[in-house]
Amino acid sequence: MTQTALNTTLGTTAVAGDEPKPSATARAATTTTATSSPATAVRLQAWLRRLAQTALPPLLGLGLMLVLWEIIAQTGDGIPGPIPTWHAAVELFSDPFYRAGPNDQGIGWNVLASLQRVALGFGLAALVGIPLGFAIGRFSFLNRMVNPIISLLRPVSPLAWLPIGLLVFKSANPAAIWTIFICSIWPMVINTAVGVQRVPQDYMNVARVLNLSEWKIATRILLPAVLPYMVTGVRLAVGTAWLVIVAAEMLTGGVGIGFWVWDEWNNLNVAHIIIAIFVIGIVGLVLEWLLVRLASAVTFEDTKS
């Protein structure tokens, strides 16, 4: 072998025997991966822990309710279990807006009719109750004059007003709206009046110094301060209205979720009654959620320590 070939062979062997050293970029990437992997695992564990704390209790509660429901269905007479009720619900909601006559309509139309009555009665109660609450809270003489009337009428059951509505309006639909009105007005009147009475006296002193009119006092000072109390009254009023409309429609008839429940009872369709109970609860839950979001949006919370 020549000297040149020997040198070439020795050089190749030396190069092949050397171990390549990683670059600085590769070392940094390895270090970052080793560092971020435990952090990612910790974040994943924290997320799973929060998910278990928030989702697991409701799921367990629903599971317990289904188990109790199935036990009652097995031991009771004529009460369908969760699976037959689910099949009936799938069939029912396959066409919730059908019309087969004035008294034979889908559950969707009945829910919308009930919501329409609640909206009308509640809207009228808000138009009367909120200004009345402002006036009662603002003027002590008016407060002392109206307070005995409110204390007398507020504990009366809302359904006790239904015959008065039928007598006055001669029709079931206005009577139901009247019942919603009379049961919704008290929470708004009382909460608004309490909110006005709790406005700091310093605000009113400033308004007196600036010689503000009653309209400016109501819109510039009282309304921002009273808004959280007002929204609380609205939440209570809507919840009460949705509870009352079901019972009122059972007595007055026509189209509505309450009448639909009573009609299904006359048809001995217990599965549809159970479905209606869930529908009423879900609609009430959605209304409550919307008003809670509204309350959180208008309520000022001091975050300073």
Provide an overview of this structure:
The protein has 305 residues and is mostly helical. It has a domain at 107-298: MetI-like fold (Orthogonal Bundle). The protein is 80% helix and 0% strand. It is built from eleven helices and no strands. Helix 4 (107-138) runs antiparallel to helix 9, helix 6 crosses helix 7 (172-197) and helix 9 (214-252) packs antiparallel against helix 11. It is flat. The termini are far apart. 24% of the residues are buried. Mean pLDDT is 81; it is low at 1-19.
CATH class label of the domain at 107-298: Mainly Alpha
Oligomerization: single chain
Major sheet: size, sense and barrel closure?
Answer: none
Query: What is the correct CATH architecture of the domain at 107-298?
Result: Orthogonal Bundle
Helix content: over 70%
Evaluate the radius of gyration.
Answer: 34 Å
CATH homologous group name of the domain at 107-298: MetI-like
Mean pLDDT, to the nearest integer, reads 81
**CATH fold descriptor of the domain at 107-298:** MetI-like fold
The total of beta strands comes to 0
Helices, by number, come to 11
Q: Distance between termini? A: 89 Å
Structural class: mainly alpha
Low-confidence parts lasting 5 or more residues at pLDDT below 50? 1-19
Molecular shape = flat
Strand content: under 5%
Order of helices and strands: HHHHHHHHHHH
Pfam families: BPD_transp_1 (PF00528)
GO molecular function: nitrate transmembrane transporter activity
Protein name: Nitrate ABC transporter, permease protein
Domain ABC transmembrane type-1: 111-291
